[in-house]
């Protein structure tokens, strides 16, 4: 609910209100403005200034937003339904999916350098992908933080394999744009092909599962992305060790 720039704008007294609110969500949503001011040891004017900096016209609007935020967090639950993952794994055995994996394997084989990219949970998958492909004989690097410097001739003409569930992360999109400016090919693994990262990519493979968020955190399953990594890695190994006729075995 509270953005970084909002919190940074608070003075010492307003920070007292912020500290009290964050520690007492359950109480504050029922408090009148005078009660909150008394508990936070500030004036009602300070509370109103705090509300304004939180983009609220007054204390009443602030309480509404606070209640919505609190109840939204309570409503969301993490389920362990694996139906979609099972459906995805079944789809990967189709002839069409096999052909796409074979085509992507050929792209990977031709690449002199491979960089795996992702942030958050997708960054963990990127790290796993680089380690997995390296185990298959194709040395790779990974980038899992947004401000990693990529203005280097080393990255020119590399194949960049990008992981992003939403395909709309500003950090990941920024990396993709910078890599494209260095003539890199982009292969993206996203939840849907109708996203910015996929549209910026030379190649895309999408897996289509339900987005799942727990408050502000994306907890969408990464099992399809990991499955794609492993399928491509094993095809890569067979391709390089046995020849091109064995990619679909």
UniProtKB/TrEMBL annotation:
UniProt cross-references to PROSITE patterns, sorted A to Z: HTH_RPIR, SIS
Pfam family, one: HTH_6
Stretches assigned to the SIS domain: 104-242
Claim: Ubl conjugation is one of the keywords in the record: no
Keywords per UniProt: DNA-binding, Transcription, Transcription regulation
The keyword Magnesium appears for this protein: no
Listed GO biological process terms: carbohydrate derivative metabolic process
Domain called HTH rpiR-type: residue spans: 1-73
InterPro entries cross-referenced by the UniProt entry: Homeodomain-like_sf, HTH_RpiR, RpiR-like, RpiR-like_SIS, SIS_dom, SIS_dom_sf, WH-like_DNA-bd_sf
GO molecular function: carbohydrate derivative binding; DNA binding; DNA-binding transcription factor activity
Protein name from the UniProt record: Transcriptional regulator
Organism of origin: Lacrimispora celerecrescens
